[in-house]
Write a structure and sequence with these properties.
11 helices; 4-stranded parallel beta sheet; alpha/beta; 283 residues; single chain
């Protein structure tokens, strides 16, 4: 039995920086808050809460805070929330992923030029909610190639299309092809980060080779869910888990090759724990 662990698994650059910034403040500041979970991983968020870091879940909760340090999550926040934090003169640390910040800038500048913005992504994801808030005019969220096929707008409309950083790369390409086939005056900016593209491509390759594929990620992690979706299409026995406690492998006698990958918000120690367990258990 052999175990293949994806090289591009676990914390990405943006998540690493965001989590480090929170831990750096512990012991230095009395009241530390993150606006939304700093990343979509319950294990990390729980550990930070045990160390006194509180999560702000809404604008109303922000209104109640009079002092303290607010750390803006890696996914970013809505423009009006950002401005409110500044207006309240609260100390804040912006841990928004730089790749997400780049999309904010593109959307802001292109919409100021009069372009209609199309965001390819999940409408209810906090990253997308933040991106949409930077549009200064018409903005639409397209979640699937099917929605792209049904989308209609005046042919003369100038459009700028961007993507959620963690969107399924294959679906993004398919969506782009649909928009191009409609003959729109469209500027396409592929804002899926390199780490996401590499992670998805590698996961797909490994899943196509193995008997069992394990995807580790937070229950609310969009990029982890997309990895599971991609791997499931290549390997029927694909498991999605948050921690080792969730892993229940069946009929392991015939298993010769196991693949492991993990979302961008999965800590290295959890990946290692799962890997070590699989190596010991499936012989």
């Amino acid at each position: 039995m052999e175990v293949i662990v994806a090289e591009h698994a676990g914390f990405c650059f943006g998540v690493t920086k965001a989590v480090e910034k929170v831990y750096e403040q512990i012991g230095k500041k009395d009241n530390i808050y993150t606006y939304g979970p700093i990343i979509h991983n319950e294990t990390v968020v729980s550990d930070l809460e045990k160390k006194g870091v509180k999560v702000i879940g809404s604008e109303d909760e922000l209104d109640d805070i009079k002092e303290g340090t607010i750390i803006i999550r890696s996914h970013g926040i809505k423009k009006d929330i950002y401005e409110k934090i500044q207006q309240k003169n609260l100390e804040y640390i912006d841990a928004t992923c730089p790749f997400v910040k780049r999309i904010h800038k593109i959307v802001d500048e292109e919409s100021q030029k009069g372009k209609t913005i199309i965001v390819v992504g999940s409408a209810d994801h906090p990253e997308v909610e933040g991106i949409v808030s930077y549009a200064n005019g018409p903005v639409f969220v397209i979640e699937s190639p099917k929605e792209a096929a049904e989308f209609q707008i005046d042919q003369g409309t100038e459009i700028c299309l961007v993507s959620q950083t963690t969107f399924n790369y294959n679906k993004f390409k398919e969506t782009v092809e649909i928009f191009q086939s409609k003959g729109y005056n469209i500027n396409i900016v592929n804002t899926i980060c390199n780490a996401t593209e590499e992670r998805q491509t590698e996961a797909e390759r490994i899943a196509s080779q193995v008997d069992v594929m394990i995807v580790i990620g937070g229950a609310h992690s969009s990029n982890s869910r997309k990895l599971y979706e991609i791997c499931s299409q290549k390997c029927a026995r694909t498991y999605f888990i948050q921690t080792l406690d969730d892993l229940h492998l069946d009929n392991t006698k015939a298993v010769k090759l196991v693949g492991i990958t993990a979302g961008a918000s999965t800590p290295k120690n959890i990946i290692e724990e799962v890997q070590n367990y699989v190596r010991r258990s499936i012989i």
